[in-house]
Design brief:
Chain lengths: 222, 222
Amino acid sequence: MEQTALADDEYRAAVTDLLGVLAYGELTAFVRMAVDSDMAPTLSLKAHMAQLAHAEYVQYTQLADHMRDLGIDPEAAMQPFVAPFASFHERTRPRGWLEGLVKAYVGDGIGKDFYREVASFVGPETREVMERALDDEGHDEFVVRIVRDALRTDPTASGRLALWGRRLMGEALSQAQAVAVERDAMSALLIGGGMDLAEVGRMFARLTENHQRRMTRLGLEA
Amino acid sequence: MEQTALADDEYRAAVTDLLGVLAYGELTAFVRMAVDSDMAPTLSLKAHMAQLAHAEYVQYTQLADHMRDLGIDPEAAMQPFVAPFASFHERTRPRGWLEGLVKAYVGDGIGKDFYREVASFVGPETREVMERALDDEGHDEFVVRIVRDALRTDPTASGRLALWGRRLMGEALSQAQAVAVERDAMSALLIGGGMDLAEVGRMFARLTENHQRRMTRLGLEA
């Protein structure tokens, strides 16, 4: 059982980090999307963006509840990730509604890829909570449609948004690397769970490929 | 039944306005609070503020669902109120975490007073949805405690926040007046429902008194 595994200090520290980074990622995604919804050109799009933000909040509360169930303090678990996320968002402030939308889609996608990658290293209850967070209720479809529509009416936007996508991925990878260096336990879980360094490299390659697939879906060059 | 009453064009127009202004008020409150949560000095306060924002979003969806049940298009109903709310929020941008918190408390309080005032003029189903929106799940307590704590550690803030509270009330009343002049059907519902002009005046007096009571609870001069 997971509770038994949690008695192991190493595993507990790793799961605490993992749930902490995921939960704080959802909480900041919630705030960023709510902020960006204010830039929406129509009321309908604003309401939709608010719904996306709300979905992130619900996932945040599920992760926080799960931590409490495991006897982990969510705030303590999230604290180490406040600075890297602040830094990521500081460096990737969207300059308009479309950039915000692309950021939500790309950021969410990278987050979900990471969920999928690490789910096999954790106990069954934690895995279930993480898998629930993978259900996006058709939100991706919404974003893809809006961005493609926007590109049809303003083709000049595509070069700028393609650059923006590369910048987002670069900043995300650079923060992820900083976090991995800092958080020994989480890295040990991945490595100890059967990943060797070559496998970690392949994981980053998969994250990048998926990102490129998402950019293509938006109609943008990756 | 309310469906019968809704066949009456005047009543329908009034209820559409009423639900529209309430729903858009919740939606913008959600966005503002999420934005302000970013200024919270600790992770714990940020999470709490996000929870307040989330509660506003849930109330917005309940009002929007209720409109759809009545055959009212929520977006069309909210549209006339986009400009007055934008103007209110534009004129009352908080310059820090505490101002944001006081604004959330004061704005929410005025909104809820207004729910209470108009609930007696609408049909039973609409009244029920509005009464559900009055349940604040202890959020007011949270804000009052934080503001009073902050005033204890920084007594100089109290003069500035007292002024801020007066400004918020002034801007809210001025926008409310603009809306009342613009939206005939809603005014007619109140007047036709038994309110004469003197009663409307007394309603504004009650809203002001309740606002003063809230400021006192925060430890501020009204």
